[in-house]
Amino acid sequence: MTVTMNSAPARRSRQLPPDGTGGVLLAVLVLAGLLAGAALIGWGLSTLTARFLPGAPPYLILVYTLAALVVGMPLLARALPWITNWFYLFPALVFLAAFTVLPVVLTVNYAFTNYSGENSGNPDSAVRTEAKLSTDRRTVTLAGTPEADSVAGYLRCRTPSCAGDTIVLFDETASTPVRARVAGVQGNAVTLAAPVAPGLEVANATRLNRYERVGLANFQEIFAKASTALIPVFVWTVVFAFSTVVLNAVAGLILGILLYNKRLKGRNIYRTLLFLPWAIPTVISVQMWVALFNQQFGIVNKTLGLLGLTAVPWLGDPLWAKISILFVNLWLGFPYMMTATISALSTINEDLYEAASIDGASRWQQITNITLPLLRTSFTPILLSAFAFNFNNFGIIYLLTQGGPPQEGRESTAQSTDILLSWGYNTAFASSGGQNYSLASAIALIIFFLTLAISLVNFRAAGVFREARK
């Protein structure tokens, strides 16, 4: 009787969903644990499959993970009946894990490795050499060691004996690489830890472009060259973001106040025309400005020539290129600030202006004493978000100048108009000698901490934390 009385409340507690914030966090934690467990099972089964079937497709990990979820969700619902009320969160968790958590984890991981185009963990096809397999299928004899004087140097072994390292074997068609663990080397003969699977006729061999952990080496390299990359790029990034916000805000504020005047004739036409720069896709607008700013054939310099002025190297000089970026970004950004101003002005009570007019206040006094103070609350989050956006505004830099023009004494990946994000992009995909993903990941972490610090300063200066405590 006692067992029945004690088990009934326990059974009901498993069926009732938890309440409050703690219940939500518990549900998310349980679902995240289910997803992590399914992913672990999928990874384990796909690894086991690849060991017995080297030609198995990589997407099997997704198939196994999905199968584990199909089996695991009913079992979880039986153990915790209340979790079924929270299954709607599962798709969101999957997308969050795939598109946010996983990229962040990979970025942090690669920042402490030497992962690059040269150290990708894949077979190096550029130094492939002919190879013969012994009759016992345990010894591979290499015809040569390209770019090295010994097998250990060719395979880039961690130890002189190469024990525990990897050699990659190919058949005549070189369609499917087979990785084999090395037990030792003697001359050009490589002894394998296990016989090669039957059916593979070895014709060629190569090494792995292995990547490994290097600790803080990437960060040391960045700060060692801070004067030629990090510091000037960071300074320009802050100047670019701050100047853009100030120019766009001032232009948008002035135009918004002028166009909100109900006595202005044709104000809807003016609004539509001034809204067009924001409506036209950025790619088209920027390419138009590239043509306009062409030093020899651009209409801007043609017009200056007709006025007897010297042609300006808009995109060919570091200083003028920065001015061009600020001007084009003003063209692209002021309609948003103008629209935000008009929307904020519509919330101000007209009685305030009528009372001020009765008291004899001029139009300028009404703007400085009524309009601007009341707009401050609305504009603070807009300005903060605009600064954060332009701090990482990769598009305008890449489309207009591609980081150029080159500047003497600067890194090839951090030219005169590069911001932090474009510097990281150039390092990852356009660095000399191949892609350098590890160094770009380290730059991404530095950008994250810099952005976080600047955001905290902005929030503190704007009193966001004080408002949140209220």
Q: What's the level 1 CATH class of the largest domain?
A: Mainly Alpha
Largest sheet strand order: 1-2-5-4-3-6
Number of domains: 3
Strand content: 5-15%
Shape: extended
What would the CATH topology of the largest domain be? MetI-like fold
Q: Bin the helical content.
A: 55-70%
Mean pLDDT: 86
CATH arch. level architecture of the largest domain: Orthogonal Bundle
CATH superfamily of the largest domain: MetI-like
DSSP helix count?
A: 17
SSE class: alpha+beta
Spell the H/E element sequence: HHHHEEHEEEEHHHHHHHHHHHH
Q: Compute the CA-based radius of gyration.
A: 32 Å
**Gap from first CA to last CA:** 54 Å
Protein name: Maltose/maltodextrin transport system permease protein
Membrane topology: Multi-pass membrane protein
Function: Part of the ABC transporter complex MalEFGK involved in maltose/maltodextrin import. Probably responsible for the translocation of the substrate across the membrane.
Main location: membrane
